[in-house]
Amino acid sequence: MLWLFLALILIGVTWVVTSDNPWAQEMQELAGKKHDQSILETEAPFSIAAHSFRFYKFDLPEGSAHISVVGQFSAAPDTRGSKISNDPAKDAPVDSSIEVYVLTEPAFAVWEKGYAASSVYQSGKVQQGTLQANLLADVGVYYLVFSNKADTKTAKKVTATILLHYNSWGPNWFRRLKDWVNDEREFVGAFASASFLRFLKSSQGA
Fold first, then answer.
1. Could you tell me which residues come within 8 angstroms of residue 101 by beta carbon, excluding any fewer than 6 positions away?
2. Predicted TM-score (pTM) above 0.70
3. Using CA of residue 5, residue 10, residue 11, residue 17, what is the dihedral sign?
4. 52, 158 Cβ separation under 8 angstroms
């Protein structure tokens, strides 16, 4: 009886791992470990020249799920090296805003060339903001971009803490079990279809 009990447990665990059933998906999430991986944590502000940008490329961890990028950022004029003027017109308030994007790799290639591209996240022109965006696991590579392209005169100093938040569970071989089962299902389905067609042809010939 013990082997039967163990077999039932193995079947149940395999179903939870491989099934797309909502209940099984919920069990996977409950069993998951939540992680926060740093994309960018500034100890000191970094500078972005006028009409320029700075980017950070990041990959999604293998086997991760329920992935999001979260964090805060702020910007201010970078006045280092600027000369103080006694002319009130020249000392008028300067633009303190920055634009922040999260882009897929193909979208970044388009945006970098100066064209409009669809973004996962876009802050608009702001002095500070909170970043929150869900990511697709099958995309793989993303770009976090800080853009000062809209300001042709003033450099910006930026402070940011941006994290990758995700769930993962089980060892790598266990997480790969779902892909293996799906591949086997496709093979068995294709074999059964081919066998059925051969049977129909032989029946017609008879």
1. 111, 119, 121, 122, 123, 143, 144, 145, 147
2. no
3. positive
4. no
Per-residue pLDDT of the chain (206 residues; tens, 9 = 90+): 666 666 666 676 565 555 556 665 555 555 555 678 999 999 899 999 999 999 999 999 887 888 999 999 999 999 875 554 555 555 557 889 999 999 999 999 999 999 999 999 999 999 999 999 999 988 889 999 999 999 999 999 999 999 999 876 554 445 455 555 556 555 545 544 555 556 555 665 55
Q: Are 128 and 73 in contact (CB under 8 A)?
A: yes
Domains annotated on the chain, with CATH: 32-80+92-185 (2.60.120.680)
Buried b (16+ CB within 10 A) or exposed e, 3-21: eeeeeeeeeeeeebbbeee
As to burial, measured by CB atoms within 10 angstroms (0-12 exposed, 13-18 middle, 19+ buried), residue 82 is exposed
List beta partners, residue 41: 161
